[in-house]
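Module 6 notes. Inverse folding takes a fixed backbone as the condition and produces residue identities as the prediction. Think of it as a translation problem where the source language is geometry and the target language is the twenty amino acids. Below is one complete input and output pair. Work through it position by position during the lab.
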């Protein structure tokens, strides 16, 4: 079976591949894609796969946006770290989902469901798609964040954060004078932040608008940022996001 994985977290993509290898599915992995933009191009240029595993939140937006830009007739199994996101809508449309971190038994059950019903479809009615997009795009934004300090935790104001980055599977939050460890993933954090004030410039960095001091051209059509309290970090906006980042800065 030819499958496609659309997932922006390398660890999650690798875990899914390992679980698929342990399952009874005889599969050929066609590709791993991490952005809405690249997924749209892939579907335009390639034969539709027999099954797609699709993360909801990708590097440049929500995977539901793919359906607004290109027709996808392959059956979809969605993956998500957030079970509050209109999950019932998936069931209404006969689309299965897997809650991260994905467990072998849940993957096997989803594959069993797929094998029993070859007419599974990704088709989402317009009103359901609108509901799904709205439920994810308009969550309540947080004003505080719990961080580790010593052997315990303290809460800091989100407005204090200059940027957030991930390194060696650890998430760090930087203020003007301190670095904190945050016990959440980059996906979880970015979804809960005000996207008019914070921007995910690449897979491993989220930047606050107030921290940006200078924007300079960088090779391969990217841009490089100078920020407050940079420590040992370089801040380079990914090629796919450069145009959108400039629009965000102009707002």
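Target side of the pair, the amino acids:
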């Amino acid at each position: 079976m030819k499958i496609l994985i659309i997932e922006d977290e390398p660890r999650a993509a690798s875990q899914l591949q390992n679980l698929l290898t342990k399952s009874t599915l005889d599969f050929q992995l066609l590709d791993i894609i991490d952005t809405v933009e690249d997924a749209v191009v892939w579907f335009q240029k390639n034969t539709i796969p027999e099954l797609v595993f699709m993360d909801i939140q990708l590097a440049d937006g929500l995977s539901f946006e793919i359906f607004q830009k290109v027709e996808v007739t392959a059956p979809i199994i969605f993956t998500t770290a957030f079970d509050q996101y209109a999950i019932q809508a998936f069931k209404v449309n006969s689309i299965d989902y897997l809650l991260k971190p994905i467990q072998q038994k849940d993957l096997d059950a989803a594959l069993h469901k797929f094998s029993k019903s070859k007419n599974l479809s990704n088709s989402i009615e317009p009103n359901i798609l609108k509901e799904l997009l709205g439920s994810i795009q308009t969550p309540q934004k947080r004003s505080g964040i719990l961080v580790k300090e010593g052997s315990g935790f303290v809460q800091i104001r989100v407005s204090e954060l200059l940027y957030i980055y991930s390194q060696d599977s650890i998430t760090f939050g930087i203020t003007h004078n301190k670095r904190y460890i945050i016990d959440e993933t980059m996906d979880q954090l970015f979804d809960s932040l005000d996207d008019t004030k914070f921007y995910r410039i690449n897979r491993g960095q989220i930047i606050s608008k107030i921290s940006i001091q200078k924007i300079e051209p960088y090779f391969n059509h990217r841009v490089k940022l100078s920020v407050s309290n940079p420590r040992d970090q370089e801040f380079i906006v990914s090629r796919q996001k450069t145009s959108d980042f400039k629009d965000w800065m102009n707002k």
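Reference fact for the lab report: The CA atoms of residues 129 and 205 lie 29 Å apart.
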